[in-house]
Amino acid sequence: MHAAAAAPAAPGMPEAAATVTPAELTIGAVATVSGRLAGAQPGAGAQLSLQSEPYPFRAYTTIARTSVAADGSFTFPALHPERNTRLRVLVEGGPAPAGPPLTVTVDPQVKLSARTLGRGQTLLSVRIRHALLGSQAPVTASWYLQTRGSHVFSLAALTPTRELAPGVLYASATVDPPSRHFAYRVCINPAWEHAMGARSTHGDCPDHDFVLEAGRAR
């Protein structure tokens, strides 16, 4: 959970300390911003606004408002972010916060599938729900296979992606597995890549065999 406080308020002005839960979620899931208003005169009924700045982080826009409860607590309506987003809470009529914003990391929803076709062939596929951002034109999906007991992922196929529907990417490849039991990975570099997920998951797809670094998510 990521927490951040508003900038110190002027003397006599309340300030909002807020958290967003969860700080990382899969697209389609819900995030909640809540916290407590503190200061000289927090007062029940004080009005707060929630502002959002989604990737590419160009400007904040007010997306919700709420009132403070008698104990100083507050909760905004549930959010459904579709890309990485910064958030901040303002006391209406008070100074704008200068502290760090709350951050929400939104991961794409990924579904992988493998189906044996017989004659030593396997159909691999990936379906990804993603943010509606940038070009929806096809890109290349790179497929890598790993034999059990090996640390090397070998490049096995390059295939085009396509959009099954707006915001739903699909790709598949028919491969000849290196053994009965194997692992596989697929890598793509779509237009919306940097709008979703942690920075550590981004990077160009290798055009050759590779050894996956320990702890690396991608």
Secondary structure elements and pairings:
Blueprint: E1 2-5, E2 15-21, E3 24-26, E4 32-38, E5 47-54, E6 61-67, E7 73-75, E8 85-91, E9 102-107, E10 109-118, E11 121-129, E12 140-147, E13 152-160, E14 162-165, E15 168-175, E16 182-187, E17 210-211
Parallel strand pairs: 3-9
Antiparallel strand pairs: 1-2, 2-4, 4-7, 5-6, 5-8, 8-9, 10-11, 11-15, 12-13, 12-16, 13-17, 14-15
Using the 3D structure, state the CATH architecture of the largest domain.
Answer: Sandwich
Net shape: elongated
Number of helices: 0
Order of SSEs, N→C? EEEEEEEEEEEEEEEEE
Q: How far is it from the N-terminal to the C-terminal residue, by CA? A: 22 Å
Detail the poorly predicted runs: 1-11
CATH topology of the largest domain: Immunoglobulin-like
Strand content: over 45%
Described by strand count, sense and barrel closure, the largest sheet is:
5 strands, mixed
What is the topology, as strand order, of the major beta sheet? 3-9-8-5-6
Helix content: under 10%
Q: Compute the average pLDDT.
A: 88
- Number of folding domains? 2
